[in-house]
Specification:
Two copies of one chain form a homodimer.
Chain A lengths: L4 H19 L4 E2 L1 H8 L3 H10 L10 E2 H11 L6 E6 L3 H7 L2 H5 L2 E8 L13 E3 L3 H8 L3 E4 L3 H14 L3 E4 L12 E4 L2 H22 L2
Parallel strand pairs in A: 3-4, 3-6, 4-5, 6-7, 7-8
Antiparallel strand pairs in A: 1-2
The structure holds a DNA duplex.
DNA sequence: ATATTTTTGTGAATAATATGACAATATAAC
DNA sequence: GTTATATTGTCATATTATTCACAAAAATAT
């Protein structure tokens, strides 16, 4: 098992880049085509592949179809991944209807909320009472959950999820949830991503105005 | 200028953690309180602060208010940051109404789309024709933009943004956009984040079932 | 068939990042 | 006022990630 997060992220990127290359008619690729399409170095591509035991042919490169297939198996995309979502607010609702997931073999099978006004039993993705989550997760053997609740509730939801048997959480609440041996947590903080960007934009403009002195 | 992305991200986290600690009544903190709240090591906190020239008092720690203030200045939060958004689809629309940004001093001042059906001139955040973007960015001196269009359009939008004078882009399209010397790009790929999680969940369950053999 | 070229796969070298250790020093105790 | 203690700030060390470099192998050319 490769336990380097960045490396898995790159694998996703390679997969996406490969799909684009395939659409352009590529039958095989070399590490430098792919690195170019994915925005990394060729040796990075080969090193990553080496870590996952993906091999190509010397002087022949990699066959696009086989490569996509191999990466998809590693990423668990050979079967549809069913996930749940808790918190049907703005962001949650948008994710429920986001088409990209289904295309990528990820299906949000149910959402949950504490607010009865949000319940929608018969929607494409039903929104159910939070109390039903634990049972649902157990019955349906769900292992991945998305948290899109306010920060004050996030920790509690994460604990309920963990207790129900969820093993991976994608957290959009602006609080850093910590993973355990049992549960992997991936935090996405939208404000923080923008802050990051703003810092570099400001730093850049300061550096440039300094140059002008 | 600190050019380490991760380090800036941690700074955001420290800021958020500090606000929570402040709400709990903390007047001063030590590097270990803060590291605990932010989920890092104490030496990491001190090292980061040292990079940004943030100092505390030996044996006295850091004053919470001063620390929040100093971090906010570094992150450019002493003034409201105005950003635009292109692509008023599901995700775009959710971000337009996301309250967290305004609370954090980030304001989406206008959205743009190619689809006339989406235009909303008089909404809290107006949605305007894409053709008006360049002029708007120039007039309003906008420097940060969010891309929430389909992947096929993302590259083109990024180029228009860059030409208009945008210096930082937060990209949600599932294609890796590459930054330049002029423009910093931050890519968020939601599917990829879930794939990442799924990989670790699967790897973990395999490791556990292997243990049982 | 043999030589030439191209591209992989990987071990070694380098670079980036995080941790540990501890001297310096401010606060508190006496 | 002196001593003891806790905590910072930073340098040295360890860890992790990336790039380089090149031998081995496959495809093509001669």
């Amino acid at each position: 098992m490769v336990s380097n997060r960045k490396c898995i992220t790159r694998l996703s990127r390679y997969k996406n880049a490969l799909k684009r290359l395939k659409a352009l008619g590529f039958i095989k690729v070399f590490s430098d085509n792919l690195s170019d399409a994915a925005g990394v170095t060729p040796s990075q591509v080969r090193k990553d592949f080496s870590l996952f035991g993906i091999t190509g042919n010397k002087r022949g490169g990699y066959k696009v179809d086989e490569l996509i297939e191999q990466i998809q198996v590693i990423l668990g995309k050979n079967e549809i991944q069913r996930v749940i979502l808790v918190g049907a607010g703005r962001i949650g609702a948008a994710l429920l209807r986001y088409k990209g997931f289904e295309e990528g073999g990820i299906r949000i099978v149910s959402a949950f909320d504490i607010d009865p006004a949000k319940y929608l039993a018969n929607d494409a993705v039903p929104i159910r009472p939070l109390e039903e989550m634990t049972q649902f997760v157990r019955d349906e053997k769900i292992r991945v959950g998305i948290i899109t609740v306010p920060d004050s509730a996030a920790q509690r939801i994460a604990e309920i999820m963990a207790a129900a048997g969820i093993k991976g959480i994608l957290n959009f609440a602006p609080i850093q949830l910590r993973g355990t041996d049992e549960v992997v947590i991936n935090n996405i903080n939208l404000e923080s991503e923008l802050e990051n960007l703003i810092y570099f934009v400001n730093a850049h403009s300061k550096a440039n105005s300094a140059k002008c002195d």
